[in-house]
Design brief:
alpha+beta, Outer membrane efflux proteins (OEP), 6 strands, 449 residues, Membrane protein, transmembrane
Length: 449
Amino acid sequence: MAPLPESFALYSDSEQLSGKWWESFGCEELNGMVEDALVANFDVLIAWARLKQAGATAIQSRADKYPTLNVTGDYSHSSSYTKKATDKETTSDTHSVGLQAGYELDLWGRIEAESQSGNLDYLASREDLSTAAMTVAGEVVSRWVEIQTERQKKRILTEQVKTNETYLELIELRFRNSLATALDIYQQRQTLAKVTAQIPPVESKEQLLLHELALLMGKPAGAVTVADADLPEMADLPGLGLPADLLANRPDVRSAGFALQSADWSVTAAKANRLPSLSLTGTAEYTGAQLGTLFDNWMLSLATSVVGPIFDGGSRKAEVEKQQGIVDERLASYRETVYTAFKEVEDALVKEKWQKQYITARLAQLEAAKTSLSEAVSRYAQGLDDYLPVLSALLSVQELEVSIADERTDLVLYRVALHRALGGSWTDSLITPDANNQKTNDINVSNEG
């Protein structure tokens, strides 16, 4: 794999943060929503359930490292009948109870390899949980930002409707005084209708975003309300660290790494399975014809067995090839995950950099459009021009006002994407839902196998 660049395209002197980045937005309601989603989101709950399954599988994978001990018991009854001069019936009862132990010597490391593979699969599942949590946090913040944007756009459009109504009243007054034409009135009515028609889609999108937010929080649509708030001002770039830091800070990268290591151990296990295995067994048993004599007779036996494949139709050899193919697949997946992580950070940095310049240019364009509108209104009032320049300038101003609201939102969303791309360690303190009463308890997850 080619090494990552030594630095990102942009540089930041700020301290690198690994905690809950959304708290920097300064909204307590948003903080609470994210925390609620991290507990109740369905994708997170599914990830917890998969982690539980992976933990049980890991325990199963290392069970063969220890001896097995079973209790045995048996009872038999027989009856025979002899027909002679005097009929005679003979019955007998046999009771037995004992212990049976078994242990496979791990001569070639197969059992240890399977144990290591299972443990690494568990660690990969834990990182998948962290990835799901980071995704959910980012999605909740994004929906909150978009909801605030739609409300801001609605306020802008409502003010524009009032402005257009005022313009319409003035034109109608001028028309009654023979200073304006009917076409001026029709054009302004059309502009008013156009702006008014933009409000319903904005209200609809706001409701849909609220529904999406409710689902992210594990609640039914309509169960979540959001208070009005201003969009956060973008501070300086957070600490970026080095591209190589992504290998430790991104849970998806860590998960891909654990999956690759697990596949390596599976190859070792598959190779060892082609070699003979050595097992030890032992039994201790008490027997008796009656319960009272059960412990009068006892027997102890020890046995050793060696099993080695001679001909299996190529099954074990094919299993080795299969596991090696999985290693190749996961190696490619790991490389892709690492490069994708680096790309996502670079993409977010580039988008934010140019979005700031774009917003600055659009604001200058808005100021120019307002100046043009003022001049057009002045010339129209003096009878020097018709209404068309006023209408053109008015539409330009109003479209820019709505557009800039969206573009400021994009800037915030690019920062959200940057935080998500940088990863962090805040998922180490995730809480797990209680299976019985849905209460939550703090847990610490260690990377020790």
